[in-house]
Design a protein that fits this description.
23 strands, 611 residues, 8-stranded mixed β-sheet
Length: 611
Amino acid sequence: MASFQAQAIQSTEPVLSVENLTTSFLVEGEWKPVVRDVSFDVAPGETVAIVGESGSGKSVTSLSIMRLLQADSSRIEGRIMLGGRNLLSLPESAMRQVRGNEVAMIFQEPMTSLNPLFTIGDQISEALLCHSAMSKAKARAETIRLLEKVRIPAAASRFDEYPHRFSGGMRQRVMIAMALASKPRLLIADEPTTALDVTIQGQILDLIKVLQEEEGTSVLFITHDMGVVAEIADRTVVMYRGEQVETGATADIFHRGRHPYTRALLSAVPVLGSMGGRERPLRFPVVNAATGESDLPVEAADTVAAMARPVLEVKGLTKRFDIHSGLLGRVSGRVHAVENVSFDLRAGETLSLVGESGCGKSTTGRAVMRLIEPDGGSVLVDGKDVLALDKRGMREMRKTVQMIFQDPFASLNPRIRVGAAIAEPYLEHKMGTKRQAKEKVADLLTKVGLSPDMASRFPHEFSGGQRQRICIARALALDPKVIIADESVSALDVSIKAQVINLMLDLQQSLNLAFLFISHDMAVVERVSHRVAVMYLGEIVEIGPRAAVFGNPQHEYTRKLIAAVPVPDPDRRSTKRMVAYDELKSPIRPVDYELRAQHYREVSPHHFVAI
């Protein structure tokens, strides 16, 4: 009886106990704390989520636990207890045995975590051989078993393949297999789904749940996505500016969150289905992270000129990429990236192109701008055929159509001040003098919620959300009628994403802009769109008013995308979507392949689905 009670007490002891963790970095000769006095436990079989925006200290917390920070420029204080040992007092040789053996970590970007020079099988086998006395043959068999466990199709045949042959979702599953190789007691997952499409994200979340049930592994999940937190976490730690501001059961955090920052995070989460009964896009409510005060979400005014001619008309747009092989570089196949895509866009309207990576939505946006040359079809801007324009005509067209890209830092020259970057297109197109350009820059910075004196700063002095606002200001410099926003908010934290979307909706209303909004985030698309076009393998398979597509999805692929969206409701945490574990089919076709003509049926007014 006594031994049974001892076992029961032992089983309730936390796998990981973090006490008063403070992490500082050496900056200009002084220690600057970036994580201050953080404490939490992770129980056996439990999932604890650390949530917060970029810069809140959540990833530094996980790296501190693993002692992966550079020793000469960082200082970690407090206690990190694992199995009765303080990890901060262990020598480095002992920590190497802990990493990957007792505690494993999955990082955000799997391609940077995998060595491109070694096969997938060798990299997983290495983890087994390092932490056990296993033979190479047994390590190979165990690796294949792990690959099958994480739902890699034809695992035995893919053992000898290299990382570049795997999709993003498959690479993340390989990282999970590697992390689980030594049966760790604790799995730290640092933003493991942020860079993935919504369906692949659903697969990874379901996979972690299943593996946790089978192996009894504890999980420390780092994320800024409250929808993911609701789906996977038993308890949640909310971090803000390096401090732990709220901790509790996930259901309590969602339903009875007390801290203003917690409420601000939750208010910025787009909830799929929340647009029922609304015809027009809806701004996100803005919550002050310091006071908790909130404004009411405002439905955008109807600025769409229904009877006017569309400002952008795309008909039969096609783009294929040749694949060369052999010594002579002959064309051996083609990537059918965009096939016979047609749509129109009116002033003041947002049409969203949605689909997984590889479906052709970004290629469509670039082909419309002629950043890549289409192989066929027509693109009319204000009635003029873009594909027939010469170089001078293209310069004029780009006053009308501008583009915002996914990565704002890559879009800005790090050596040029942001004021000069915004003024550059204005001056290049000779739309005014330098003095007028300076006034224009000040006006645009004000329009996008920044102050005019920021024009003298460089891009690295701004946050990600501020840099995206600068890119929007630059796109507005030529007074365009159409803006193509290519995954323009997908890399942003949830609250920053809400602010940027609100800005885009406000600008659309005040300037009567038309947006071609390219995204894989169905919850955001529902919030911002007037109409939605769903792309699959280069083709539009369903298009129609937003309410019709979301309220009555007809195509199987549309229903799959909607079903994969995380629901920010902790009461559904035990529910598994069981999304199919198949990859997006390849758009590569033989040279002589002839695609059959796509036919559509009208389900309801202006709602068409491929048949």
